[in-house]
């Protein structure tokens, strides 16, 4: 039996014309939901929920991504079972999730109890989670491999060709959503950095003019005030921009 819940308005599809239209509508809703996700973490969580509600046979879903150091880490899941399936693969260094990241685009496992491709992983996964069927997809955008989407089921042979097709489309949405959310976060961080730089630069100019000091001396005043007040440098700079001088407590100490 496949899982349900977590993604309103999503049901099971079939290969009929009506089923195809319904499936298309679901993915349209998914695309909108992912586009409005405020953070990469939210986007990843939404993908796992939609996976369980949309891919036939799927009981659990998890996402693992390649980190900045080249390692693979679990970043989202529908629960403890999905997290443990991913963790076991990372611990033993083998499994279909790692396989799709490094060697192939899709990997289907009918029954972990009889599959002998990753004995260390399979034995532990069955014993510790009860998972029998697995379906893994590479998450990528052009040549940029992001990680993997892992779907699992307690039922052997749960994933048929239709499940593979639906999962493939879902994985494509997931990869685009993760990339888009990351880009939006980077843009926001860059904008914040630019605002901070501008505020600090303005504060330095004010202190240089008011105190007749050099740029380096003005920066030292800001840095000292930040340390003594236990506040961020940019927050102290904002005070200077708004008031025309250092915060009173820091200014008094600076005069000593």
From TrEMBL:
InterPro entries recorded: ANTAR (IPR005561), CheY-like_superfamily (IPR011006), GAF (IPR003018), GAF-like_dom_sf (IPR029016), GAF_ANTAR (IPR012074), WH-like_DNA-bd_sf (IPR036388)
Pfam family, one: GAF_2
Domain ANTAR: 180-241
Matching PROSITE patterns: ANTAR
Keywords carried by this UniProt record: Kinase, Transcription, Transcription regulation, Transferase
Ranges annotated as spanning the membrane: none
An example molecular function term from Gene Ontology annotations: RNA binding
UniProt protein name: Transcriptional regulator
Species this protein is from: Pseudonocardia halophobica
């Amino acid at each position: 039996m496949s899982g349900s819940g977590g993604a309103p308005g999503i049901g099971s599809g079939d290969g009929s014309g009506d089923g195809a239209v319904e499936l298309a509508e679901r993915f349209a809703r998914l695309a909108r939901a992912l586009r409005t996700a405020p953070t990469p973490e939210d986007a990843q969580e939404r993908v796992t929920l939609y996976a369980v509600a949309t891919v036939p046979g799927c009981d659990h879903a998890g996402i693992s991504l390649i980190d900045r150091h080249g390692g693979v880490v679990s970043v989202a899941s529908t629960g403890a079972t999905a997290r443990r399936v991913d963790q076991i693969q990372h611990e033993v260094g083998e499994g279909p999730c790692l396989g799709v990241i490094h060697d192939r685009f899709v990997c289907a496992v009918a029954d972990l109890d009889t599959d002998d491709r990753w004995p260390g992983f399979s034995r532990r996964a069955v014993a510790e989670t009860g998972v029998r069927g697995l379906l893994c997809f590479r998450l990528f955008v052009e040549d940029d491999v992001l990680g993997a989407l892992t779907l699992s089921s307690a039922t052997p042979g749960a994933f048929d060709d239709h499940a593979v097709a639906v999962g493939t489309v879902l994985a494509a949405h997931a990869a685009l959503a993760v990339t888009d959310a990351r880009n939006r976060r980077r843009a926001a961080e860059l904008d914040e950095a630019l605002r901070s730089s501008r505020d600090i630069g303005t504060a330095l100019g004010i202190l240089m003019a008011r105190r007749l000091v050099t740029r380096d001396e003005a920066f030292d005043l800001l840095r000292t005030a930040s340390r003594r007040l236990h506040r961020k440098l940019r927050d102290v700079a904002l005070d200077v921009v708004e008031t025309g001088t250092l915060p009173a407590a820091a200014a008094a100490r600076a005069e000593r």
